[in-house]
Amino acid sequence: MASLKDQLLKNGLATKQQAQKASADKRKQDKLAKQVSKADQEAAKLAEQVKREQERQAKVQRDRELNQKQLDDKTRRAQEAEVRQLLEVHGVKPPKDADTPYNFVHGTKIKKLYVTPQQLEQLSRSQLLIVIADEGYLLVPAAEAARIEERMPERVIHPHVDSSSDDDEYPPIPDDLMW
User: What does each C-alpha distance from 8 to 11, 23, 28, 74, 144 come to in angstroms?
Assistant: First the structure.
């Protein structure tokens, strides 16, 4: 079977120049289609590379965040262990037979701790501070309380918080006042 071009030339419906022009146009279209196809493939390949790079960067970011979280957890656990050790070594439990009440503010509540008169004197001079321990409250020397406060400031209770300003109408309350 002869091609359509040969049949048209044989029947005289097309000239040789028209046939050559049609062949040239078809080659140009095929070449252009190949170039477009190649460009589409390159664009798809480039898009795939960009997507892989974004995924890689997202994974690196997740890994960094996970590592930072693990490091923070490790640091927090180490600080808790140090505070626990400082409390074991330097913490003093108020004696059970102490009869002098000492009132202090913990958060929004007023707490009462029974101490000896000597401990009361040290508390009023800020030589002893109250520290929140796992099993309650402990009295700790001020130097050790400062070390604890460096690691975990929420554990140290400062009884002498002066929140009054100069324009208050009431004078400050003395630290050794029993109420």
Answer: 5, 13, 22, 86, 107
